[in-house]
Amino acid sequence: MTKNFAHRGFSGKYPENTILAFKKAIEYGADGIELDVQLTKDGEIVIIHDETIDRTTNGKGLVSDYTYEELCEFDASFIYHGQMGFNKIPTLREYLEFVKDNNIITNIELKTGIFEYHGIEKKVWNLIQEYKVEKKVIISSFNHYSILRMKNIAPNLKYGLLSETWLINAGKYTHDLGIQCYHPVHYNLIPKVIDEIKKYGIEINTYTVNKESDIRYLIEKKVDIIIGNFPDLTGEIIKEYK
Ligand code: G3P
Ligand code: CA
Questions:
Q1: Is the pTM of this model over 0.85?
Q2: Ligand 2 centroid vs 49 CA: distance in angstroms?
Q3: Which of 58, 114, 147, 155 has its CA 20 to 30 A from that of 134?
């Protein structure tokens, strides 16, 4: 059955990529959580989507220009005008501490598409081992070199290649790189694309799926994971098909 992953946590109703949004995703029955990681000036792995803190916090500037301690001053829920309290940018360590004892699967997206953040793959791997979550993570990135680097260090983890283009022969491409999952934007998933990917035995984990009709189509097409901002809606629809 298709699994329900919360994109940046329950980001449709709560501040994205915060512990609050992750808690709410679990509370509303998500099978998994997708989150984004970048590196601070002092090498801390933090959970934030953009390379800058401008859009999601009350601060300005590059994540990589701040130490983690400095970043803690900013409110990652400021767009909610205080209704959500103060929520800091979490570290990946803090997140893993929070999920280590439950069954939630975490899709860690390495945000290495603009800055490569040299060494981030090894740092993420060290934390995965420390928290013993090897079987509960999927590592994805739009930077496929980054995925191959990490696979070289940690060959037994599950990996996904992110794509927002109409890649031809995506199944063959993914298979030939020895990767288990393909993570396309959902509107690329016309039937012939799905068929080609499935032919190679590749898992299809697709984003960002928020509309009921899209959720139904993808369940009917038996995609493996739907990543969306509303895990409550996705969960309700999946239940109907069980
Ligand atoms: O991992 C799926 C999706 O999150 C990729 O796009 O921009 O939301 O990180 P983006
Ligand atoms: Ca992401």
A1: yes
A2: 6
A3: 114
